[in-house]
Amino acid sequence: MSADGFSPSPPPGARADWTIDQGWDRYSQAEHEVWITLYERQTAMLPGRACDAFLRGLDALDLHRSGIPDFARINDELQRLTGWSVVAVPGLVPDDVFFDHLAHRRFPAGQFIRKPDELDYLQEPDIFHDVFGHVPMLTDPVFADYMQAYGQGGQRALDLGHLAHLARLYWYTVEFGLMQTPQGLRIYGAGIVSSRSESLFALDDPSPNRIGFDLERVMRTPYRIDDFQQAYFVIDSIQTLQDVTLRDFGSLYDRLAVASDIGIAQILPGDTVFTCGTQAYALGGGRL
Ligand code: HBI
Ligand code: FE
């Protein structure tokens, strides 16, 4: 939604809710090969790095078969497991449209796939990020409920003028979340699991801070959209996410309205610190 409160209209060919047909038959062989390349790269490195729920979901959905998956096939299984479905969209959709889909257990996924010369970085979420990154976690019943609650909360955050705060929760959990397990830190965030370089950086690099998840703390922390994160937040279990959404965000938003943001690389006295990062990567100018 734009600042004046009106959403732009869907592009030509899209429905009122911004969905389009996936048009699975129209993907070229070259596009299927991009999927297969990315799929093989990520699945080779994710055991021992991604959390069990993600790896189980990946297995359950059998996402690699013949390249880019057909949403109709994924949805049979996903519907059965958690009642979610994947719908195709042309790219980024307005916030209110995005939240409405999530609130109805539909995940909007980009229909297109990145070009072979941009395997590692892209501006808009494509089908590999959206389907490989996000959909496996939607097979977990608790995570599935969290995502729906997030969509419902999104509609309220827009009304209350606190979208920027809620978006940080999404960013630091759904996109870039880490989880503490008896076997060590694991990835569950879609932005990490769908990226080879960030799957290494987020777990192994000494640069970023890794801090125990705290809802209010996260909502006060800005994030980077153009490079690796300078802070990652660590949950104990998926249940933590569901518990968070049981709270009423109204009083939280009132406090946040007068609270200052926390520096992106700052560590506070109350933080549970997994890693006090060197920030060497960001101080060195990152990849830009
Ligand atoms: N659209 N397709 C798509 N994917 C997103 O992740 C997305 C979006 N529109 C808005 C949006 N995300 C953000 O509003 C939230 O994540 C906060
Ligand atoms: Fe995403």
Automatic annotation (TrEMBL):
Reactions that this protein is recorded to catalyse: (6R)-L-erythro-5,6,7,8-tetrahydrobiopterin + L-phenylalanine + O2 = (4aS,6R)-4a-hydroxy-L-erythro-5,6,7,8-tetrahydrobiopterin + L-tyrosine
List, alphabetically, the PROSITE patterns matched. BH4_AAA_HYDROXYL_1, BH4_AAA_HYDROXYL_2
The protein's GO terms of the molecular function aspect are:
iron ion binding; phenylalanine 4-monooxygenase activity
GO BP term (any one): L-phenylalanine catabolic process
Positions bound to Fe cation: 129, 134, 175
Instruction: State the Gene3D superfamilies in the record.
Output: Aromatic amino acid hydroxylase
This protein's pathway reads: Amino-acid degradation; L-phenylalanine degradation; acetoacetate and fumarate from L-phenylalanine: step 1/6
Q: Which cofactor does it need?
A: Fe(2+)
Annotated EC:
1.14.16.1
List keywords of the entry alphabetically: Iron, Metal-binding, Monooxygenase, Oxidoreductase, Phenylalanine catabolism
Please report the stretch or stretches of sequence annotated as the Biopterin-dependent aromatic amino acid hydroxylase family profile domain: 1-288
PANTHER family, alphabetized: AROMATIC AMINO ACID HYDROXYLASE, PHENYLALANINE-4-HYDROXYLASE
**Family the entry assigns:** Belongs to the biopterin-dependent aromatic amino acid hydroxylase family.
Protein name (database record): Phenylalanine-4-hydroxylase
